[in-house]
């Protein structure tokens, strides 16, 4: 029932958007050649705002065709390095014999496609040979592929690292922080030759007990059954993953909007002004951003519920109780992989302290191989925008370069 409601809303809003944009074009044509004030502009602008209404499951393209490295342009091509039912290891190869240190970017599997990190990847490409975990929309994964929980995410990260081989560096943005730490610890204990040389965590909830958010508090107050009953649906017959239990991406996006409603209202008000005044550049930037944000993907129910139960409700890794397929995850085994934790003082999704808790957790790592980067930014500012470009990325570039050396 939950999924059908989300899908019905998405289908209806898709039709409403098409009707609104059609009406907007008709109104705009009526104002063509008008010598005085254009009375239809505000109404046309209001209709144009429907572009940002609702969600889609249309996967955006990375669209990174070129990057400047060492002051010269280099062509970028997308190559599939490894394909699995739940995700693809995507290589964004540069046209150069010296692409830089090999870096695997683990994108969040929390409701948006990996293209949400387009700006992050474009910047990293300047100095690194970049691979990305391009996760699959769970509603397109047949049930025959099996379940995909936290243990499976850890296994997938290990498999991707093994496919890349030695001397790879690892960078995780937000949600997969615990999974990447667990993967590195298991590989270290096994003396796996593909153990990453460095691990960078950007705004990841390693210890959500520190300055907990509203959602993190609710995950401890409400019983697990409540989340399974109210936030998990079954994919209907019209999709390849029919019968799979998922956390709908539309539900995740709705929650994100409601939790930061003031910012979204401000953004839409500003867009209305852009459209009325004819500021095309600003309007296009808003449109591109919201097109990305509205493109959602469903998350396997097993992973979503595991994150609530094993990361937020009871932070198993921090408590030393995490088991991976029955095997204890021992963070003390991590002795060589350099570790960087990036946090934002204004981050309301993952408050400062939650991510850097990993530095204390990895107590076998020498102090010289651990570093914290704290900047004045909100969550998104840690991996895109001015702060990312000028304050965060230079630290990551130096950190990875030092570990590679």
Notable characteristics:
single chain; Rossmann fold; 2 domains; 9-stranded mixed sheet; 3-stranded antiparallel sheet; 14 helices; PHA/PHB_synthase
Sum this structure up briefly:
By secondary structure, the protein is of the alpha/beta class. The protein is built from 14 helices and 14 strands. The protein folds into two domains: 2-54 and 261-294, no CATH class; 66-215 and 299-404, Rossmann fold.
Give an overview in words.
This protein is an alpha/beta fold and 405 residues long. It folds into 2 domains: 87 residues, no CATH class; 256 residues, 3-Layer(aba) Sandwich (Rossmann fold). It contains 14 helices and 14 strands. The strands form 3 sheets. Strands 1-2-3-5-4-6-7-13-14 form a 9-stranded mixed β-sheet, with helices on both faces. Strand 2 and strand 3 form a beta hairpin. About 1% of the residues have low confidence. This is Polyhydroxyalkanoate depolymerase.
